Amino acid sequence: MLYVRDYRPADPSAVLRAPIVCLAGLSRNARDFDQFASMISSDSERPRRVLALDYRGRGRSGWDENKANYNLAVECDDVLTAMAAFGIERAIFVGTSRGGLILHLLAASKPDMLEAMILNDIGPVVEVAGLQEITAYLGRGSEPKDWNDAANILHSTHGPTFPALTAMDWHDMARAIYAEKDGRIVADFDPAIAEQLRALDLAKPLPELWPQFEAFKAIPVMAVRGEHSRLLSDKTLTKMARRHPGLRSCIAKGQGHAPLLHKSDIFTAITEFLRTI
Q1: For 229-244, b where at least 16 C-beta lie within 10 A, e where not — what string?
Q2: For the whole model, what pTM was predicted?
Q3: Is residue 242 part of a domain?
Q4: Which of 42, 99, 125, 131 is the most core-located residue (most Cβ within 10 A)?
């Protein structure tokens, strides 16, 4: 079972515009996009329908008994399945981290589905230092005592790279990352997903996706990079701009991996980008 959050604008004119499909990071889910999607779907000038997907093993989607299915190719198929279920043939995609990697595969296999693209702190080159950072915090396994403790754990872990976030942001992030199950507050994903990441040999070079990135040249693309990100480097962002001359880039000040898209500076840049489409 796959779960999708559907944000439908009240304005009937929204059906004339391409919807937005949001894809989250490795262990994350549709709740990451709740504030962003609510703001886009209720925009006073150009509202759009927004759908946010929980991949298998995350959020409210079912866990896969075959843990080998937690891979980019299968998750790309999940995106296609969700779009078919909603009758969406073409969309603007927002891909955060792993979601952006899935979009590289989608662009190579189904380019006609892509109206435009927003890559959130991800590109064709994934820095090993960034993956090591993700592996480290997914492996800590701290179980919060309550929701305040959940917010404090996140602040303690990510605070140095996210000075722009407020106390409310950390509480919102806690509600997005954790879920209450059987009276416990736990990370809302199948632990097998983290185990797969820990099994990677990060001493070996990671495959690059420049051939797939070439498929983006035919569509408008915006790239967001967290100012303190260790997953998407300045070098890669510069090379992306050379490979895609029309690429719009934006730095999320005071944020690391991966930026919250509803923060005012990034949200303004994104809405300006969307109004050109």
Answers
A1: bbbbbeebbebbeeeb
A2: 0.95
A3: yes
A4: 99
CA–CA distance, 185 with 176 (Å, rounded to integer): 12
| Tokens (6 digits) for 107 | 């662009």
Residue 146, classed as helix, strand or coil, is coil
139 has pLDDT over 70: no
- In this predicted structure, the answer to whether residue 229 has a pLDDT above a threshold of 90 is yes
Interatomic CA distance for residues 101 and 209, integer angstroms: 8
Angle between helices 147-158 and 167-177 (to 10 degrees): 110
198 has a pLDDT exceeding 90:
no
DSSP character at residue 18: -
Average of per-residue pLDDT values in the chain: 95
Domain that holds residue 61: 3-127+208-274
The count of structural domains within the chain is: 1
Q: At residue 142, does pLDDT exceed 80?
A: no
State how far the Cα of 64 lies from the Cα of 246, in Å rounded to an integer: 39
